[in-house]
Specification:
binds flavin-adenine dinucleotide, 9 strands, 296 residues, alpha/beta, globular, TIM Barrel, nine-stranded parallel sheet, single chain
Length: 296
Amino acid sequence: MFSVEFMPPRDADDEQLLWRSMRKLEQLGPAFVSVTYGAGGSSRDRTVRTTSRVAQETTLVPMAHLTAVDHTVAELRNVIGWYAAVGVRNVLVVRGDPPGDPNGEWIACADGFTYAEELVSLVRELGDFCIGVACFPCGHPRSVDLDTDTTYLVRKLRAGADFAIAQLFFDADDFLRLRDRVDARGCHAPLIPSIMSMTTPRTMDKTVELSAATAPTALLERLNPLREDPKAFRAEGIDIATELCQRLLAEGVPDLHFITFNRAQATVEVINRLGLLPADALETTPEAVTPETVSP
Ligand SMILES: Cc1cc2nc3c(=O)[nH]c(=O)nc-3n(C[C@H](O)[C@H](O)[C@H](O)COP(=O)(O)OP(=O)(O)OC[C@H]3O[C@@H](n4cnc5c(N)ncnc54)[C@H](O)[C@@H]3O)c2cc1C
């Protein structure tokens, strides 16, 4: 089973790209599509509008992200109410980062929340939602160590979350060890790995930034020599994503969550190579590789 993540579109061009990709991926039957939420509510209306369209105009199951940044509890109640009103029953609850500087000091909004765990409790209290939370195979950058990180993850799962989606990572073992740590605490909620094909140097750098891990030397040795050759870099990036997925599936991980940057092709290719494409799915001949298409 697989799912995909989109970002709410910023303008008309973005909107077109998003819906072209959404329709392409719809044919592959993802379990759900998630739509991110900009820090401080900057994308609030766009996230609500996008998930609403997914709920009302497609066969897809939407999942809306929600963050606590710069929102009072009253505002959060409102957003959750809007989600319910437009038919969104799945919410990915994340705390969020300080707007502007994700590594800056976290300052809780007056009358707001400090941790995702509190927002999980609120969403749980407000309705019959299916709730996901974030988890971090290499530890959250603000956590003192992996053990403490796992303790707080298990706390937020027990506060009412149904599953967790992992931050990007390079090494399958980091994800598998997180699964073991959570299991060892008697918590058996599903953890879903996030996969992003590193189809450009930019997406590779983004993965390094988000994972809070150093890219393995073996991986750098495969990708770095191809930095000036977009086509070869993309092909290698797809190979690497496919190999990571194959290892996870072989280790009994049943679900994969693909970060798309609102593009479909790389996800289609990886899913095809994993043999997860439905028999009646779209023609999977890769699009011509141009500077515009050399991204996820
Ligand atoms: C799958 C995924 C999707 C994401 N989607 C978005 C998005 O749409 N929009 C966005 O802005 N950001 C998003 N993020 C980023 C996320 O908001 C940041 O990574 C944020 O820094 C952490 O969010 P969290 O929900 O894990 O926070 P929390 O679970 O609150 O954890 C934050 C830190 O506090 C610690 N902690 C937790 N509880 C306690 C406690 N009770 N006492 C002391 N310490 C505690 C944790 O160990 C961690 O170090 C996403 C991340 C992931 C992995």
